[in-house]
Amino acid sequence: EEMKAWVGYGPEDRARLQSARAVVEPHVVRIIDRFYDEILRHPGSRDVLEDEAQVERLKTTLQGWMR
Fold first, then answer.
1. Which end of the chain is more exposed for a tag (fewer CB within 10 A), N or C?
2. Which bin fits 9, alpha (ψ -120 to 50), beta or left (φ > 0)?
3. Do the beta carbons of residue 32 and residue 62 sit within 8 Å?
4. How far apart are CA 53 and CA 19, in angstroms?
5. What residues in the chain have per-residue pLDDT under 50?
């Protein structure tokens, strides 16, 4: 709830995201893979991310969050 308040996320945003879910759902894994591929291209990211296992855990967390 706190994060929603930070970004000004409200009921209208929730409704828009829910309506987009059917379109986005089949692509979630590909979106997340692309997101982390881009992050991992940058050397500074490698300093923060410990190993591939951590990246996989983060991907799983992001899948849950996106869904």
1. N
2. beta
3. yes
4. 33
5. none
Containing 18, the helix (H) or strand (E) segment is helix 11-24
Q: What is the pLDDT of residue 45?
A: 86
Please name the helix (run of DSSP H) or strand (run of DSSP E) that holds residue 56, with its range, or none: helix 52-66
Close Cβ partners of 29 (under 8 Å, ≥ 6 residues apart): 63
Q: Report how far residue 7's alpha carbon sits from residue 9's, in angstroms, rounded to the nearest whole number.
A: 6
In this prediction, residue 3 carries a pLDDT of 78
The predicted model scores a pTM of 0.73
